[in-house]
Specification:
Alpha-Beta Plaits; 7 helices; alpha+beta; 6-stranded mixed sheet; 2 domains; 61% helix
């Protein structure tokens, strides 16, 4: 006897990619099942009355590792209409595998047991719906990865554009600085900065000494003038001491001005060297960042290409389940001799 049942593999939400209606043909047999079929354990043999045999396209061996979510069948439309006994024992239900690759190529063999013929048919419908849910989950996973890689690529391209604009402006500034300096490398500028720092330290010490010397000359001038009493002492002060101190003061002022010019010149040269160094270093950092973005873009583009290839040519486990010839054979667990 052959029964035809429409099984709707509807997605969990409207956003899911797969939706298909499978019209299953149930071949109800009453003869002895083939000897190669796997029977339930002896403790379950008295509970089950029938079992279904079906071939589903694809390598569904993944469930052997991860476990088919049998309890999920209870949440399906067919699962909710199962008998109470079937629902009570379904958590202990075993999905049997025998896919040795010698029966039907690229199909996985399943056996489903039930406490009645009607429950077995509902088990098949619920089982197909669970497989469809898994297929949708797999397709959604790759579609999500596709979106994530697309977003990453947009970010990479945005980052590259921003850094290239920044690099263009930086290179212009660097070219302007190169017109004022003679450095050929960032290392040369670094060494120049170190030498100029030493020169400025020496000049600062020298200037501090000159300023203190000027103060000492002024103080000495005032002290001698104050202590010069009488006509003779005033003559000596005016003719010899004051001219000598004044000449010392003038000489010191000249030296201080010269040192100040050296200091300002050294500071200007150091500033230019620091600008060249900082711009050059920033340019090197930009090159590293740009290289990182470009490598990331290449990696993300490669990953996107791989994901899109999978989406364009999905494996059967990502599509609505396809039962071989849409046929399910139902056998009795026991046959009277």
């Amino acid at each position: 006897m052959v029964l035809v049942l429409a099984c709707l593999c509807a997605p969990v939400s409207s956003a899911e990619p797969n939706k298909a209606e499978i019209e299953l043909k149930f071949d109800i047999r009453d003869d002895r099942p083939p000897a190669r079929h796997l029977m339930p354990r002896s403790s379950s043999r008295d509970v089950y009355t029938h079992y279904a045999v079906l071939f589903v396209k694809g390598d569904w061996d993944i469930y052997r590792r991860d476990g088919i979510p049998i309890e999920a069948m209870l949440e399906t439309y067919a699962g909710q209409s199962m008998s109470q006994l079937q629902r009570e024992i379904i958590s202990n239900q075993s999905i049997r595998f025998m896919d040795n690759g010698t029966t039907i190529s690229n199909y996985t063999y399943f056996q489903l047991f039930g406490v009645s013929q009607d429950d077995v048919q509902k088990m098949v419908s619920a089982f197909i719906e669970v497989l469809a849910s898994y297929a949708n989950k797999e397709m959604r996973r790759f579609l999500k990865e596709q979106q994530e890689y697309q977003e990453l690529i947009v970010e990479d391209e945005k980052g590259i554009a921003e850094k290239e604009t920044e690099q263009k402006d930086l290179n212009k500034r660097l070219e302007d600085v190169k017109k004022k300096v003679h450095y050929l490398s960032i290392e040369e500028a670094r060494k120049a900065i170190e030498e100029l720092n030493k020169t400025l330290d020496e000049l600062n010490i020298e200037i501090a000494g000159m300023e203190r010397k000027l103060i000492a000359i002024r103080e000495e001038h005032e002290n001698i003038k104050k202590n010069s009493q009488g006509v003779e002492q005033q003559k000596i002060y005016s003719s010899t001491i004051w001219p000598r101190l004044e000449q010392m003061r003038i000489d010191q002022i000249i030296e201080l001005r010269v040192a100040g010019v050296k200091q300002r010149t050294a500071m200007k040269i150091r500033s230019e060297a620091e600008e060249f160094y900082n711009l050059s270093k920033k340019n090197l950092d930009l090159l590293v960042t740009l290289d990182h973005f470009r490598r990331e873009l290449s990696d993300h583009q490669g990953s996107l290409d791989s994901v899109e290839l999978i989406i364009q040519k999905p494996v059967p486990e990502m599509l609505p389940p396809k039962v071989f010839q849409n046929k399910v054979t139902i056998y009795p667990v026991k046959v009277e001799d």
